[in-house]
Amino acid sequence: MSSDRLPSRSENFADWYNQLVLRAELADYAPVRGCMVVRPYGWALWENIKQELDKRFKATGHVNAAFPLFIPRSFLEREKEHVEGFSPELAVVTIGGGQELEEPLVVRPTSETIIGHMYAKWIKSHRDLPVLINIWNSVVRWELRTKLFLRTTEFYWQEGHTAHATYEEAEEETLQMLNIYADFAEKEAAVPVYKGLKSEREKFAGALRSYTIEAMMGDLRALQSGTSHNLGDNFARAFDIKYSDQNNELQYCWTTSWGLSTRFIGAIIMVHGDDQGLILPPRLAPYQMVIVPIFRDEDQKAAVFEAANKMMAQLSEFRVKLDLREGVTPGFKFNEWEMRGVPLRMEIGPRDLEANEVVLARRDILGREGKQKVSQDRVADAARDLLSDIHSNLLDRATRFRDENTHQVDSYESFKEVLENKGGFLRVYWAGSSEDEELIKAETRATIRCFLMDPPDGKGRCFYSGEETEKVAIFARAY
Fold it and tell me: In order of start, what are the domains of the chain with their CATH numbers?
């Protein structure tokens, strides 16, 4: 890992981000344009994300399954909005085994169509419902502009697909999963989010309605961090997913889909990171603590290594890395683990052994203010308290940053002025059309990120059309 300093976050956020992903060894560029290799450190972070989400999914009755990578091209053509939405992004296989295929195969961009085909086979009666399936896989979307984790041709995610007897049950499921994403983002990743409904222009292709969690990044842009879609009966009609109700009459199912991807790793980087590197939330970090032994000679080394190993035994409840590398200085190690965002660092040397102490240093608060001496006998208790406090501090800091950069505007002129001079999220009353939204995007590059789920009581005038409305929207420039 290079010892050179990162680009400044405030001066060149994009370069800071790209360099940090590479130098913290989260991911690297693959030989195929737009693809990435997720390195072990990045994959460990993704595994922790998966574990926390999977636990929540299973607690709400969902089960995991696997579906094929290849989908017949004709499947995507059955749902008009869906095929129109995804056509520019499709990767299509026309030759297999050296011969031209009778029907081209699409490398899955998302799985609604193959799911619909299978659900039509499996669902016959109201007793078969609901079907609550989640899959962990990768998908391919042929992106023109790519960025590691945020937008790559192939990316990893989970996609949930459910089928229900009624619209009300499908809507309840859609909102339940949105709330699970928001709960995960804040409680595990310390990333505050706005929950809301996507506009007609921004919703998922083929959905009746789409919900989203939106987070503010360190450069004041928005990142769509997870979505949940009520598909209505659109896919059920396209794929003939029917069930026999209690009156023995055939009814179409109501279906949902929802997903969160490796772009959430990008959110963690951009919400919490600083000029020294990553700051990883303790509950998801691959290593929650790193132990750095400090010594000058062989006698000191033996005693310090023995004490460090004893500390490891005390810390079995945490994910701990013991850095026993020789040939590099403690300072080099400090800088490297700061770059990689480990929440807590333990320093242990000869003086600490004499005092029966260790030094614990927080990643979220650098320098003396973030260091404290702790008795070796209570290291586990201290680590537990500090990791909890680090999570709270990260969430409070990110929430304060978002709120301070969310601006209420009441006219289009002030909207443009604030967007150019301050950036961030613009909170407005909205009664405009999709055409109005398109015009605003063309002029300002800002889009409706969502309509807030819990807007303030009362009505206001739309900042663009002047019409009275209860709908409150968040506009922003986004990734």
Answer: 13-272 (3.30.930.10), 289-399 (3.40.50.800), 406-476 (3.30.110.30)
* Closest of 368, 189, 347, 371 to residue 280, by C-alpha: 189
pLDDT for the residue numbered 83? 67
* pLDDT per residue as tens digits for the range 393-431: 999 999 999 999 999 999 999 999 999 999 999 999 999
Question: Residue 363 in contact with residue 344, Cβ under 8 Å?
Answer: yes
Provide CB contacts within 8 A for 171, sequence distance 6+. 230
Distance CA 308, CA 440 (A): 59
Put simply, whether the predicted model's pTM sits higher than 0.85 gets the answer yes
DSSP letters for 428-472? EE----HHHHHHHHHHHS-EEEEEESSPPSS-EE-TTT--EES-E
Judged by phi (left if over 0) then psi (alpha if -120 to 50, else beta), residue 381 lies in alpha
Q: What is the pLDDT of residue 348?
A: 97
Angstrom distance (rounded) from CA 364 to CA 343: 7
Element containing residue 118 per DSSP (H, E): helix 112-122
Residue 1's pLDDT is 52
